[in-house]
Amino acid sequence: MNYTLHQLNIFLKVSQTKSITKAAEELHLTQPAVSIQLKNFQDQFEIPLTEVVGRQLYVTDFGKEVAITAEQILEGVHTLNYKSNAHKGQLIGRLSISIVSTGKYVMPYFLSNFLSEHPGITMHMDVTNKGMVMESLEKNEVDFSLVSMLPDTLSVEYVRLMQNKLYLVANKDLVFDKPHYDHAILGELPLIYREQGSATRLVMERFIHENRIPVVKKLELTSNEAVKQAVIAGIGVSIMPLIGIKNELINGELQIIPVSSFPIITNWYLIWLKNKRFSAAARTYLDYLRKEKDDIILKKFDWFERY
What is the pTM assigned to this prediction? Predict the structure, then answer.
């Protein structure tokens, strides 16, 4: 057998998520790349590791045993790296952060220099929906979470990172010839929603309810990228975070509809459980963030602040 650590990591993630698509998202790989590596890994065993029934992927009993061993091997590799870096006098450890889906446009910029300065720190970042982010935080499975709305049911502390601006957007083909529209225009256009539990959806529904706007719900989609593509295709319009549509605005694929009361402004917060006992890596990162966040915003998000 000649499997790699990369293949072990991919198979473990597939076994945990029961989905090639979700594994690819969490590993920041393409779906074909995960499928190829999974097949190459499977080819080294005569017994099936997974099976597909209907459209659902299942891990076989043998596959579950392999997943347990893969986790043990990867944990051992982490331990070896930890000890190696410790002998070199580097700050070492693991940093774990869960973020809501649109947070992937924000969080990497607040991590890149820190991770470059501390190569002994390994990073795990889980990109998922708001409900899963809150669940991982409540179970104390992560050091920090990135959210755009502070939770009501958890006792947390936080650092405010930057504003989150949401606009009503349409594709390039719709014509809006007035300099400003009343927010009642939302009732005249087919509106595309995020899924239940999404922070963006909560903001949308709150705005619509407070302004008593009768809307036409056209479609519900489970990711910001899916909503973006649906709007570009002309299926409808949507209220979207500015942070995720920079390239589409520059390329002219999307346009901001000039509506009074917009943008809707919330904030991005890095949160953690109150009285959380931080590792050295997490404590050092928090100190770094408090010191450097304003400079990061100035250098990386100057375009955002101008809107």
Answer: 0.69
